[in-house]
Each structure stands twice: as structure tokens, then as C-alpha cells.
Amino acid sequence: MGDDDEAVFVDSSILISCGRRESTRFRALGREADRRGTIFRIPPQVYAEMGGETLLEGYATTDSAVDEALRDGWMSVTESPSYSEPDVSYGLL
Q: Where are the domains of the chain?
């Protein structure tokens, strides 16, 4: 898992709509990451919004759905993409 050619950032609206970790939508999100062979990324701001710490290193895990995804390895907290880079901007078209 973790193809560096494709960075898939997930925002808080997706995570909120998925609901609790027991929900079928949240489990489907994890299956989609597995199907794509990628790790979904969330910026520190999204992690904080979902109830976690804003630090990239050493964030304390809780019992939230996002923290379970982090422990399971299909989501990670990484810096936000730079929209001034052509590859990022191209993906928005």
C-alpha cells in the first residue's frame, strides 16, 4: 500500500459523511484505499477538525474512526498539498 504516484487527500466533509467507524460508509472508504493500493492523506487541519492534534509527528491517537484508519495504515496525516504546483493544480481541473 502507498503508491507515491497518486496522493489522495480526503477532506473533513468526506470523513464526516462516513460517520462512525462501524458504519458501512467508513468501512467502504477503507476498502477503496485498499482497492486503489494507496493511503488516503489528511492535512493536520483536517485531523484537528476531526478531534485530533495538529502536530504531524507524535500525534496522540484516540478511539475515533480517523485514528483507527491511521492505526490500520490506510490513512496518514501529511502536509497539505501546495496548489501552486502544476501537478496539484492539474488534478483540480
A: 8-91
